[in-house]
Structures are given as structure tokens and as C-alpha cells.
Amino acid sequence: MSNPVPAAPRSAAPQFPDHLAAFRLDGARALVTGASRGIGRACAEALADAGCDLAVSARTTAALIDTAATVEQRGRRAVVVPADLSAPTAAGHLIDLAADALGGLDIVVHNAGTLPTSGDTPVMVPFHRSDRTHWDQVVSLNLNATAELCRAAHRHLIASRRASLILMSSVAGVMAAPMMEAYAASKAGQISLARSLAVAWARQGVRVNAVSPGWIRTAMTRHASGTAAVSDWLTSHVPMGRWGEPEEVARAVLFLASPAASLLTGHVLVLDGGVSVPDGGLAGIPKPSSPFTTP
Ligand SMILES: NC(=O)c1ccc[n+]([C@@H]2O[C@H](COP(=O)([O-])OP(=O)(O)OC[C@H]3O[C@@H](n4cnc5c(N)ncnc54)[C@H](OP(=O)(O)O)[C@@H]3O)[C@@H](O)[C@H]2O)c1
């Protein structure tokens, strides 16, 4: 079988006048999905601060217009491209619309994702009592749309001299997450995909990495962060003892997107306050009893 990988890398190490210049992204064209709020909105703002023009996507147009306004306040261009990525072909269509609007793509931050929900409420039940509907809801957005988006992004990213694809996974993708099995499996799938594509596309000049946040204070975790017993119990299992903020994730994304990470591909950057460090559960340190009912 012939080897599809070119014999030589496409580019040499980039040169910069000083180290801070390697963190700039002036004139780069970036798409951020799930940019209507939370981590995605913070990513759009961080990339704009570094000099990117942005395409911002999610389902809620009004909230995207708000994100676009904060990008423009930072002196960068923003285009709003609404999409429901749970539809089978939506991700590919979105990539092409964003590339058309920006004249190409250098950076794709695929951040849209979901827990299983019933209305606005996350559904956390033992796996043997969960149903197929919730599995399909989570996997179709978190994993199937990711695959579709990566497939479509390739044709645009290979045309860039500074291509970076970043998948927003979760610490649930690198450790056990009982009662969140569908979510955890989809997030582990994203990590696996990032690693495989990083190697497959390395000599085409496309870096692919995953970010795995722990407990971050957003709409997705509003119920947990807003319920004292749950919040206290969760943070008691975080060595750093607090919630993370969306901006802390966005700065890690900015690093991965920038030429400062020029040798970094196939990596999973875990931002969890120490949760996933072996013994990060603070074995031996007294904690509040679990607020969850035993199945
Ligand atoms: N918060 C945490 O503790 C945490 C931890 C680890 C990983 N993460 C991951 O980080 C990412 C962002 O989460 P977040 O905490 O910022 O959650 P969030 O506040 O609920 O934001 C989710 C984003 O995804 C968009 N979205 C949801 N369903 C969509 C769909 N079908 N099509 C297109 N866009 C959709 C939402 O916008 P619309 O509703 O307008 O569509 C929103 O912009 C997710 O992938 C999540 O799994 C979060």
C-alpha cells in the first residue's frame, strides 16, 4: 500500500522577533462553534484580542450577534453563521460558509457540545436506566458533528500556513464519569479523533489538539454551580478547590491556536484544577457527603 503522507514536512519552525510575538494571530481567520455563550464566547473574545477575524456559530442568532459585537469592539471583523450542528450535514455546510465569509480558515475551535438534557435540565441517571434517546442526542452533536466538521475543515486548513484545529473535549473524556457515560464516551471519542488527525495531517501543516476542561462555571453547569450542596461537593473533589472560569479555558485555546504552540499536535490539554491527577480526588481529606441519591 502506498504511503499517503508526504516525505517532508510542509514548513519549518516559524521565526519571531521576540517570544511574545509568537502568541499573536494578527489577520488569522478563525471559526468558533458554540460561540453564543460560555467557553465558546470567551474563546472568540480571546482570539479577537490576539488579532483574529471571527466566524461565530451556534443556534441562537441573537446571542451570536452579541458575541460578534464584542469581537468588533476589539477591532476585529465578525460574521455570524447560525447552525444547528445536530443536523447530519450542518457542520460541513457551516465550515464552507465560514470559509467563504472570511476568505479562508486558519483556525477552527469546535466547542459546541451538550450534556444529555430534558428541556434545559441535565439528565444524570445510572447508565442501565438511561435511554437511547439521550445517547443519540449527545453522540450526534458531540461526536458525529465533530467528525463531519473535521472532514470539511481539512480542505480549508491545508491551504493555510498556520492551521490549527482544536476540539473542546472534557476531563470526562480522560477519566471515569458515572451517570455521564454518553457524554464521557463522546468526549473520549473527540480526543481519539484529535490524536489520529494530528498524525494524519501533521505533514500537511495542520495541527490538531484537544482541550479537556474540568468544572467550568457556564450555563451547562448552572444547576451544579448554583446549588450549594452540589457545588461544595464538586469543588471538594477539585485539588484547587474552586470552579474554573470560561476565560481560563479560552487562554489555553489561544495558546494552542497560536504559533507559540508550533510544535504541539496530538495533545490533550487538561484544565481541571488537578481533578485528573492521580490522587487528585484528595484521598484522605474529609469531604461533604454526596448530594446525589444512590441508585
Ligand atoms: N462547563 C463545563 O464544566 C465544561 C467542562 C468540560 C467541557 N465542556 C465543554 O465545553 C463546551 C462548551 O460548553 P459550555 O460549558 O460553554 O456550555 P454552554 O454554555 O451550554 O454552551 C454550549 C454552546 O454550544 C452551543 N450549542 C449547543 N447545542 C448546539 C447545537 N445543536 N448546534 C450548534 N450549537 C450548539 C450553544 O449555543 P446555542 O444554544 O445557541 O446553540 C452554546 O453556544 C462543550 O463542548 C462542553 O462539553 C464544558
Structure description:
- Belongs to the short-chain dehydrogenases/reductases (SDR) family.
- InterPro entries: NAD(P)-bd_dom_sf (IPR036291), SDR_fam (IPR002347).
- Pfam families: adh_short_C2.
- The chain is α/β, with parallel strands linked by helices and 295 residues long.
- The chain has a single domain, classed as NAD(P)-binding Rossmann-like Domain (Rossmann fold, 3-Layer(aba) Sandwich), CATH 3.40.50.
- Helices cover 37% and strands 13% of the residues.
- The chain has eight helices and nine strands.
- The chain has a seven-stranded parallel sheet with strand order 3-2-1-4-7-8-9, with helices on both faces. A two-stranded antiparallel ribbon has the order 5-6.
- Strand 7, helix 5 and strand 8 form a beta-alpha-beta unit.
- Helix 1 runs parallel beside helix 2, helix 3 runs parallel beside helix 4 and helix 4 runs parallel beside helix 5.
- Bound molecules: NADP nicotinamide-adenine-dinucleotide phosphate.
- The site of NADP nicotinamide-adenine-dinucleotide phosphate (NAP) has 29 residues, from helix 1.
Low-confidence stretches: 1-8
Overall shape: it is globular
In helices, the fraction of residues equals 25-40%
Major beta sheet summary: 7 strands, parallel
The fraction of residues assigned to DSSP E strands is 5-15%
Pfam families: adh_short_C2 (PF13561)
Organism: Streptomyces hesseae
Family: Belongs to the short-chain dehydrogenases/reductases (SDR) family.
Protein name: SDR family NAD(P)-dependent oxidoreductase
Secondary-structure blueprint:
Blueprint lengths: L28 E5 L4 H12 L3 E5 L3 H13 L4 E3 L9 H13 L4 E4 L6 E2 L2 E2 L9 H26 L5 E6 L12 H21 L4 E8 L8 H4 L2 H9 L9 H12 L10 E4 L24
Parallel strand pairs: 1-2, 1-4, 2-3, 4-7, 7-8, 8-9
Antiparallel strand pairs: 5-6
Helix pairs in contact: 1-2, 1-8, 3-4, 4-5
The chain binds NADP nicotinamide-adenine-dinucleotide phosphate.
